[in-house]
Give the backbone structure.
Amino acid sequence: GKFTLKKIDSQYQRDGDVIEGDDPATPMLRERALLAVDWSDEGRAEAFDEDAEELLDEDEDADNNGKGEKGPLTLDKLFELFVATEVLSEQDTWYCPKCKQHQRASKTMALWSAPRNLVINLKRFSQEGYWGRDKLETLVKFPVEGLDLSQYVRCPENESAEGLIYDLYGVVNHYGGSNFGHYTAYCLSPGDKKWHLFDDSSVSDASPDNVITPAAYVLFYQRRGAAPPPQTPPRQPVDPVEATIGKLTLDADYTDVEAGSR
């Protein structure tokens, strides 16, 4: 056949008989049952148009914020949306003590200070209904060097000679869905100043262009010109006897065990 259907459980494991694609019999399914479709090479070639699929992906990326603005979704655009003023709905009105009436309010988020190390978590999962969560595979383009936060940070005392410029030094990737997945990481080595891909026990070379993918989940940036973190003083050697929390003393004459604590 051109495809087979497999009934699976919530962990995506087979849970029932395999149903051939050209079998006219309709299987009995419970509510919220899950099916997996395995296409044969012939069936996939006939059912899918890979060129049209690529055009569809490009079209989805073209509308980057749902407001008709064209172009790829960027990290700068996400910051702009984060600090944009939002007028709350009728269900979120607040009571004004001056006019004694409920009024629609506006809300604005702002960044007051900029840290030495900036960690950005991209939202990759959305709630769909009561039970479902969907994985978001939208490509977010982010700068490897030169992320400028000066227009988003309010506190002037937080500025440095280098400005509020950040450079990327790590990316955590997530592959899979909400119920299963696999993590990898791109890291910029402080030793050789090169990018490397860490995938379980495998480590391979990478280029800066490799790190920008739809799988990017957590971004790690470091601020230029920021003072290094304070060094922790080396620990002094400790006498193992003094460090003992509990000890046992064996008396050879009475074979009793004495428990002492310090």
